[in-house]
Structure prediction request, 407 residues.
Amino acid sequence: MAGPLSHIRVLDLSRVLAGPWTGQTLGDLGAEVIKVERPKTGDDSRGFGPPWLKDVDGRDTVESAYFTCANRAKKSITLDLSKPGGQRIARELAAKCDVLLENYKFGDLARYGLGYAELAKINPRLIYCSVTGFGQTGPWRERPGYDFMVQGMGGLMSLTGERDELPGGGPQKAGIPISDIITGMYASIAVCAALEHRSRSGKGQHLDLALLDSTVAILANQGANYLATGKVPQRLGNAHPNIVPYQPFKTADGDVIVACGNDGQFRKFCEATGCSQLAEDPRYATNRERVSNRESLIAQLAPVLAGRPTRHWVDALEAAGVPNGPINTLDRVFEEPQAVARGLRIELPHPTAGKVPLVRSPMRFSETPLEHRIPPPTLGQHTDEILRGVLDLAEAQIAQLRAEGVI
Prediction:
């Protein structure tokens, strides 16, 4: 395969989203990713439907759309890790892999002889990446962790949503499982860094990634605002705590986002909207003053923006050099000329659906371009291929494992 990690093999024991997102990212980068799933049922997310992929006749398959979002670029092998035979096969695979991903509860894999301490003896070069809700240390390490609850526990929901005193006010989760996804992204970075360290030292290591840690890490400016002042930030809906105007405005037929990142852009915005006097008003001339006088400024701008349709403002503000954009539904996202030009929607052939639509990886490399070749696998699709090709098992041995219910 193409890609900068084409020399790397990954054993992916993870399920649902955070761990599989890591595996998919490494697979997109060219790594050979072997996804281990439970016989008969597979990854939990295979059952997260509807919606399901459609076959060529438009009928539902058993493949959930959810599963496809995090499992392309992988080969699927079924393996019962609760059985000694399955544990043995997993150890043999780990001995031939560069990276192992897992998101079992703390200590679970050690009971099967598949913890880091055990596998490091077999393969000292192994990068063993554990993804859990709360990490390998601390009083919560044995607690299960799910994206929704961690968005709340990590403070993200306290910052997301409309103000309590306004209609619809209250804490909100993100519209996507952002805690899972960002943990998967941090895990991908950590794996790549550990591989670089191994290239110099020859040593593997244990990586400890937690949903809570990752969620707190992306509090970014809001976290910094709190740490600098001791003042707990409040929800502002779609407004920005440090920049004004930096929010959506209602238009005659929808919404337009205005993002004035500096005073010069604010002056251009005022000119384009026929509100030049506001840029000269000392209450609004600088961002510092605009943040302090947010409500009175927005009260004057809102009726102006509401008087024209979204497309008028998008064109006018673009011509004026003011960052802006519409709030697109997903159908419009994939129809945008820029999305089409960048090829954000891709299709890959699929064994049961004929083809599967996916979102292209955002990573672009000039020297090692990524190639999307392997679609999300059907359950156990590559079991025999992996056992033969990686472990050199004979057909009789594979048949015996199948008879014993190991695969």
Summary: The chain has a mean pLDDT of 96. The CA atoms of residues 6 and 30 lie 4 Å apart. The first strand starts at residue 9 and ends at 12. The radius of gyration is 25 Å.
